[in-house]
Amino acid sequence: VVADNGRTVLATLKAGSYFGEISILNMGTAGNRRTASVRSVGYSDLFVLSKKDMWDVLKEYPAARVRLEAIAVKRLEKYKKAPLEKAAMGRSQSTPGLVETRGR
Predict the structure, then answer these.
(1) Fewer C-beta within 10 Å: the chain N or C terminus?
(2) Domain enclosing residue 67, as ranges
(3) Any long-range contacts for 9-16 (C-beta under 8 Å, 24+ apart)?
(4) Is residue 61 part of a domain?
(5) Rama region for 30: left / alpha / beta (φ>0; ψ in -120 to 50; rest)
């Protein structure tokens, strides 16, 4: 996970990791915008849930929502020193899903 400058590494994700929960849960100070970019340094298999599908799952499994929110709060606290607005991409539109992919 990198900041908008493309050089500052905010986090390194491993197998089974996820991203996009801060935007989906609308917990960040950047509103419903992405708070960072994710760039793969190698081959990655990505699975996508739309915002609607994610909310359907969270309604069905409220304990999962509580856990996801707790993890999101920890992530937000970790980066409190550098406000998320600085790491946010220069977009003002809503996040359409967890991730968008482009093939080559």
Answers:
(1) C
(2) 21-87
(3) 10/36, 10/79, 10/87, 11/75, 13/38
(4) yes
(5) alpha
More confident residue, 80 or 9: 9
- Which of 18, 44, 41, 42 has its CA nearest to residue 97? 18
Structure tokens at 19: 């991203």
Residues 6 or more apart whose CB falls under 8 angstroms from that of 6 comprise 37, 39
Q: Specify the higher pLDDT residue, 88 or 4.
A: 4
In a domain, 28, yes or no: yes
Number of domains in the chain: 1
* Residue 83 per-residue DSSP state: -
Question: What is the maximal distance between C-alpha atoms in the chain?
Answer: 39
